[in-house]
Give the backbone structure.
Amino acid sequence: HQKNWWTDGSLDWFWAACEKQRLPIGLLAQGKSLASLGEIARRHPGLKLHIDHLGRGGGGSGAKDEAAFADLDDMLALAKLPNVAVKMSGAPSYSSAPYPYRNIHGYLRRIFEAFGPDRSFWGTDITRMPCSYRQCVTMFTEELPWLRGRDLDRVMGGAIIDWLGWKRPA
């Protein structure tokens, strides 16, 4: 029944309160909920929403490779909304290939190109990764040749600090 909360008005007060208080929301959105997320983002342009787990559902389905990214275009359509970002967490779990999971690099690049360096955030979800924490990091820092310099710095931590409105240490 909680899946209906996205569309039945149960959370309207929540979206409005978070927007008013400038509280960003990270949430798991996939499949049909992506369209609902888009509607919420349009109704609340001051509300920052970031989609966890690449919009792939957090690994609950067990889908891998091409099947895991079958509805990627639906998630990428949300990139046109400036108040929506994506956390690129859990990436290795969506691949059946060994480290560095090259068969999903193209999907990661499409996501990055759609959302850009200021709305694409690295993450691990280490509890269900098929690799070490170090490999979760180096997959991004060493294995994606198109992700370098400022863009890499933003994805690996700088962008989310700014997105959340946190103050940087002096």
Q: What stands out?
A: Residues 29 and 37 are 7 Å apart (CA to CA).
